[in-house]
Amino acid sequence: QDTLPSEALSYASGGSMPTRSGPRQDVKAAERFFEVRIRPERQETNDGGPVALLTGQRVVTRIRMAPEPLLVQWCHAARQLFQRRFHI
Q1: In whole angstroms, what is the distance from residue 6 CA to residue 41 CA?
Q2: Distance CA 60, CA 83 (A)
Q3: Confidence label for 70 from pLDDT (cuts 50, 70 and 90)
Q4: Which of 7, 32, 79, 83 is deepest in the core (most CB within 10 A)?
């Protein structure tokens, strides 16, 4: 998708996503992106209480993928470069 779910994600609002200029009510990202929704595992603090997740809180996650040989990775990167450059 290219419409940001929240304006807070844009550079103008202190976020990390570059945006295209346009009407303020529909903030468009400069590049298309994927929105991934995760359910965190239940964790507890040192005193035994649950860890509180706050609205608007950012998290960093690592997605594990099957390993690929370098040649396959380079071919994939080259194909993506051409797709971005020539819009195909």
Answers
A1: 25
A2: 27
A3: very high
A4: 7
Among 55, 65, 61, 66, which residue's Cα sits nearest to residue 41? 61
- The two tokens of residue 53 are 């997740």
Q: Which of 3-12, 18-27, 67-76 has the lowest mean pLDDT?
A: 18-27
Kindly calculate the radius of gyration of the chain based on its CA atoms and give it in whole angstroms.
Answer: 18
DSSP for 15-59? Answer: -SB-EE---TTS-EESS--------PPP-B-TTSPBPPPPTT---
Distance CA 56, CA 15 (A): 12
Q: What are the pLDDT digits (tens) for 35-69?
A: 877 777 777 767 777 777 777 777 777 888 899 99
Take residue 60 and report the two structure tokens written for it. 């960093």
State the DSSP code for 16. Answer: S
